[in-house]
Write a structure and sequence with these properties.
This protein is of the alpha/beta class and 536 residues long. It has helices at 40-45, 50-56, 99-112, 129-142, 175-179, 200-224, 232-246, 255-261, 264-270, 323-338, 383-395, 410-416, 428-441, 474-483, 520-531; strands at residues 3-7, 18-25, 34-35, 66-70, 79-87, 118-122, 189-193, 249-253, 278-284, 292-303, 343-353, 365-367, 373-375, 401-406, 421-425, 445-447, 465-466, 492-496, 502-503, 514-515. Strand 2 and strand 3 (34-35) form a beta hairpin. The relative contact order is 0.11.
Length: 536
């Protein structure tokens, strides 16, 4: 990971390879960008003409826009990078810019400084610890790079099955080492100006940001790993390695244990593959915890659709169908590393959905772990089947709250786009709390209903329920199916991250192309709020 340090030095006197400053769009529409707080000494070095120079170079201060310019003699750094913060009006009265604005700006700057060894960030952090944490988080997330499978002598060999989980970002050598000799290496070192090295709040905020970024990187690495190297057994090994490193308890049910336990959903989905399924229980406990949070993640390490085969053009990125399990895995590890006063149990429902002579067929009836029977009408609606077994098992431990995360439906992408995940729940207050938590974490979400009238569409003439219902509102139908496997009285939320889990377009802000680590930060923030007694 990129190294972080705090400094009270001014931007003008800091010896680095680049100084990052913030600029905003002018409120009067003049086109001349507004220099944000933190860059005063840099502006002085330009004799107060920095804004006009940037305007000449075409900079407007638009969100995520980056402009490089050579530094004048008054600065110790040879390069100035101006990053857009959006409208100057977006600055909160008296508190400066919102954390997510700073997070995105820092991420864009870090990406623009690929191949640079050391940069100092002089962004507006008027609110102290919160602003510093946002800049740190954004810079670290933006500096992420996955190079495990590139033929570069500077990168480590890609982790095969059983490779160490570590702290995330294990797919590349250290940023410090690689930046010395690789122009495509991520930014190696970040100095946060305005941060006080001896201030406990500042140090704690930055340390938390580093843990979050490392665990998001862990999830991204897993999502980006090709399915010939990441499959149920190897994913389980990653969890076992991380459990050993961070003092977690881990239990892995293999195909024999799943059959003995009656996990018909997980076994049904996985029976077509030569790589059998797994159910992993990963738990963190704290001696002073008053509540337990259960997390369930969909872990389809490759989804061909099974016998209901996906058409060409829809299966090339299906290695990402385990993004929910990756998010849950990383969130549990983060809770342990942060020492949160809450018990967190993660359930990773892992299978590979493949067509073969042994594969689950449309028309099959599965007996689930709950004892309910499910008629399979479409083998490509497999995620809900593995989740159903894991949800039932998680409810047996009577958690105070239960959240599942899954790349579940294309319908949710149609409804909310590629950057927002849907939140459904059997409890209106809990749904609102999860939505609020995602907003605090800087992740876009939207509350979605579970209309009871859609349940009838899943009625089956041969089983208790079918795995498909009405086509319209398919994302909501999937949520209603899952609700059937949640015990009464358990507050439950379902996060459908099908849109934001895998970015097929160009990078933006702190979000790279490929696996994004969607929902990790929301789950960690939810664990923190649960530990602090903030949730009902």
């Amino acid at each position: 990971m990129t190294a972080l340090t705090l400094s009270t030095s001014s931007a003008a006197t800091t010896r680095v390879d680049a100084i990052v400053i913030g600029i905003a769009k002018s409120a009067d529409g003049s086109g001349t960008p507004v220099i944000a707080p933190g860059a005063e000494t840099v502006d002085q070095a330009f004799d107060g003409r920095l804004a006009s120079v940037l305007e000449t170079l075409g900079a407007s201060g638009g969100e995520g826009e980056t402009t490089k310019l050579p530094a004048p003699d008054g600065l110790k750094a040879p390069l100035v990078l101006a990053v857009g913060l959006g409208s100057a009006d977006s600055a909160q009265e008296g508190d400066g810019y919102a954390p997510e604005t700073l997070r995105r700006a820092a991420g864009a700057a870090a990406r623009a400084l690929t191949g640079t060894r050391k940069a100092a960030f002089a962004l507006p952090v008027a609110d102290g610890a919160e602003g510093l944490a946002a800049v740190a988080e954004g810079a670290l997330l933006g500096a992420y790079s996955f190079t495990a499978y590139r033929g570069n002598e500077n990168t480590e060999k890609a982790p095969k099955s059983g490779g160490k989980g570590g702290k995330g970002g294990k797919s590349t050598q250290s940023a410090k080492d690689s930046a010395r000799d690789d122009a495509s290496a991520p930014l190696a070192e970040v100095t946060l100006l305005g941060g006080k090295p001896r201030d406990k709040a500042h140090k704690a905020a930055v340390e938390r940001a580093a843990v979050l970024a490392e665990e998001v990187a862990r999830a991204r690495d897993l999502i980006n790993t090709p399915p010939n190297d990441l499959y149920p057994a190897s994913f389980a090994t990653h969890a076992q390695d991380a459990a050993k490193e961070h003092g977690l308890k881990v239990e892995v049910l293999d195909e024999k244990a799943l059959a003995k336990g009656g996990y018909g959903g997980i076994l049904g989905v996985g029976q077509g593959s030569g790589r059998p399924p797994r159910l992993v229980r990963l738990s963190y406990t704290h001696a002073k915890a008053a509540k337990t949070l259960a997390l369930v993640g969909k872990g389809i390490t490759y989804d061909s659709g099974g016998i209901s085969l996906k058409p060409a053009g829809h299966n090339e990125t299906m290695k990402c169908d385990m993004s929910g399990a990756a998010a849950v895995f990383s969130a549990v590890v983060a809770a342990a590393r942060l020492g949160l006063k809450v018990n967190v149990t993660g359930w990773l429902a892992l299978a590979e959905n493949m067509p073969s002579g042994d594969a689950m067929r449309p028309g099959d009836v599965l007996t689930m772990y709950s004892g309910k029977t499910v008629e399979v009408l479409n083998t490509d609606a497999e995620g809900r089947l593995v989740l159903a077994d894991a949800l039932t098992r998680a409810c047996e431990e009577s958690p105070d709250a239960l959240v599942d995360v899954a790349t579940l439906t294309g319908a949710m992408v149609l409804a909310l786009g590629n950057r927002t995940f849907g939140v459904m729940s059997n409890d209106d207050a809990f749904r609102a709390e999860v939505h609020e938590t995602a907003d605090q974490a800087g992740e876009q979400s939207w509350e979605m209903p579970l209309p009871p009238e859609l349940r009838k569409g899943m009625d089956s003439s041969v089983a208790d329920i079918a795995n498909m219902g009405e086509r319209m509102g398919g994302g909501l139908v999937a949520g209603l199916f899952l609700q059937e496997f949640v015990s009464e009285g358990t507050p439950w939320a379902h996060l459908d991250i099908a849109g934001p889990a895998f970015n097929e377009s160009g990078p933006f802000g702190y979000t790279p192309k490929g696996g994004t680590g969607s929902a990790v930060r929301t789950l960690v923030r939810l664990a923190e709020r649960t530990a602090d007694g903030e949730l009902g």
